[in-house]
Write a structure and sequence with these properties.
The protein is mostly beta strands. Helix content is 2%, strand content 46%. The chain is globular, with a radius of gyration of 20 Å.
């Protein structure tokens, strides 16, 4: 079975989008789950018997807000875990050597539920809070599909800026996850998130977006062809959500006109 999505790049009309912030993880941090569409929780990978991160079933909201190990109050779990989120600092939990606390691999996740249907720019800054350890992994998921990741080196307290574009629908689950990249020591990581409508004009000469209708539980692979005869995979396979899944591409990266289709993998 194949779902065919044919896109003639030359037929695209320009889409003008004005930059206007719609979400800010630091400015909108609060002690209310769902405040400004932000939720604070974790994924217990150790206890998960089904492989892969499921944004609907694997995200658990933190039950406690109050004094924690880092500056200010934090969302956290009762008991002996490192897992917590403050306005600026996030800390995961680790399996194995966990600094004397309960060993379990927890991803600390800051979730934003999209309040818009638009192409957006997601950007911010990520750095280690203190040097040491093995570094951490910062990963962004949309409805459980990985759209961005960055390794934060153990000694990188200066950090780096990040920015990427993605198409969102209202109600999409955008998860910003921090995971240990080894042991738990010195894994406190500072990161910020801002989301705004893309502040550029899209045309067939610059970039384009492909929407694929999907079925929950199916895995898809985008393919591209210039002649409708030979098809080449584009990007990584992605999971169906039961709704449209969007991918943003640079026309410059392909260098020519083309067509796209989504194939359902076995």
């Amino acid at each position: 079975m194949k779902l065919i999505v044919l896109i003639l790049l030359a037929s695209f009309s320009p889409i003008s989008l004005r930059a206007q912030p719609i979400a800010d993880s630091v400015a909108e941090f609060s002690n209310i789950q769902g405040g400004n569409n932000w939720y604070y929780g974790y994924y217990d990978l150790t206890s998960d018997t089904t492989p892969g991160y499921d944004a609907t079933n694997d995200f658990t909201e933190f039950p406690v807000f109050g004094p924690a190990d880092f500056t200010g109050n934090a969302w956290r779990i009762s008991g002996s875990f490192w897992t917590q989120i403050t306005a600026g600092i996030v800390h995961p939990n680790a399996d194995g050597d966990n600094g004397g606390r309960t060993p379990a691999e927890h991803w600390a996740i800051r979730r934003w539920v999209s309040e818009t249907t638009a192409l957006v720019r997601v950007y911010g800054h990520v750095a280690k809070h203190a040097p040491g350890g093995d570094g951490t992994q910062f990963t962004v998921f949309v409805n459980g599909r990985k759209v961005f990741e960055r390794f934060v080196p153990a000694s990188d307290i200066v950090g780096t800026e990040y920015s990427f574009g993605v198409g969102l629908n209202e109600g999409d689950l955008v998860d910003f996850a921090l995971t240990a990249a080894g042991g738990i020591y010195f894994d406190g990581t500072s990161y910020s998130v801002r989301i705004e409508p893309a502040d550029f004009t899209l045309t067939a000469a610059t970039a384009f977006e492909i929407g694929t209708p999907t079925i929950t539980g199916k895995t898809y692979q985008l393919e591209r062809s210039v002649d409708l005869q030979t098809w080449v995979p584009v990007g990584e396979p992605f999971e169906g959500t039961g709704a449209m899944v969007y991918h943003l591409f640079s026309t410059r990266g392909f260098g020519s006109l083309g067509h796209f289709r989504a194939e359902v993998l076995p």
